[in-house]
Write a structure and sequence with these properties.
Blueprint lengths: L2 H7 L10 E4 H5 L2 H4 L1 H10 L4 E2 L1 H10 L4 H14 L1 E2 L3
Antiparallel strand pairs: 1-2, 1-3
Helix pairs in contact: 4-6, 5-6
């Protein structure tokens, strides 16, 4: 049983959104948000110049970056990103 089904069974509403995407140019405009080091991390892990939850998840799985730094990259995506068009 998936997480969404479990939540439904106990009466917890589940909401989905389209996701966010952030390009590295926009990321670089906000070094004061989580620090210049996080800009560098985001630039290293970006896929063709873009950051998404999938990109961050892949970086977590590889273990090459500090998980706390990746969390801060995600903060940038959530705050400064645009809706992901699929």
């Amino acid at each position: 049983m998936g997480l969404e089904e479990q939540a439904y069974r106990i009466g917890v509403p589940v909401e989905w959104h389209e996701g966010q995407v952030l390009d590295v140019d926009e990321l670089a405009r906000h070094p004061d948000y989580r620090g210049p080091h996080i800009i560098e991390v985001g630039q290293r892990i970006a896929d063709h110049g873009t950051l998404t939850a999938r990109v961050v998840g892949h970086a977590v799985a590889t273990g090459h970056e500090d998980p706390d730094d990746l969390k801060k990259v995600w903060h940038h995506i959530a705050r400064f990103g645009q809706p992901l068009r699929q």
